[in-house]
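Hi V.,

You were right to ask for the full record rather than a summary. Here it is.
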Amino acid sequence: MESIPVAPENSATPVAGPRFTALSVPKAADVLAADIRERILSGELAEGSALPPERELVERTGLSRATVREALRILQVEKLLRIRPGRGGGAFVHRPDHESLAGAVELVIRGQRIRLDALHETREAVEPACAALAAARRTEDDLSRLDAAHQELVEAGDAGDVPRFLRGNVRWHTAVARASGNELLIGFMSALASSIYSATDIEHFLDGDIRQVTARAHARVTKAIRERDEAGARRRMERHVCAFARAAARVDRRERLDLDELDGPDGPDGPDG
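Predicted structure:
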C-alpha cells in the first residue's frame, strides 16, 4: 500500500518526500522450500539421500511443523522429493531427469492445447538432429533397444495389433533420442512422440500399408545409426517424420493418402532399402 507524504502542521501544501509501496513478504514455507530446492539442484543433496526427519527440521529451522510439512509438500509436487511412509520412510531427494522433463513438456502441450501441426513442426526440426547424434554416439545397448522396439513394431504390424504397434513406435523413437546421449532431447522427444501419437486419428491412419511403410522407414534409420552414418541418419529420419506429418494431416482431413510419397524415393528397391 502506497504511503501518503506527511505535510507540516498548518500547511495546506503537501511536502514532497520518499514514497513507499507495499512489500510482498514470502511465506516461510516457500523460503524453506527454495532453500532445499537449491541444495538439491546444486548437488549438495545427493540423489536418493534422506532429508532430516520432520521433527529435526522443525528444531533446526525454528519453523512450525505445519510450515515444514508445507515446504516438503511443495517439493514433492515438484518431484524433487519422494515421500516414503512407514518405518524407514521419510523424504528422499530426487533430482530432475529426462522423465521429469517429459512430464513437464506433456503438461505444457496439454495445458496450452498445442496444435497437432505445431507438434509435427517441432518434431521435424528436432528429430533428424537426434538421429544424427545417435549415429555418432550410439552404443551396443542403444542398438539392442532400437532392434527390440523395431521387432515389436514389426510383429504387431503383421498381427494387426495397432495398440502394440503404437507402443513399439513410441519406444523406437524414444530409443533414437536415448542413443543421442542428450538428456534434454531424450525427455523432449519422449513427450513429443507420445503426444503426437495420442493426438493422431489412429483408427483411420495405421492401416496395413502404413504399418509396412513405417517399419521400412525405421529399418533404414536404424541401419544408418548402426553404420554411424550421421548424414544418412539425419536424411532418412527427416524424410520419415515429414512424410508421416503430411500423411497424418491428409487422413485427418479424410483425403486420399499417397503411399508412394509417404515411402519416399528410397523404397524397398531404392538405395536405402
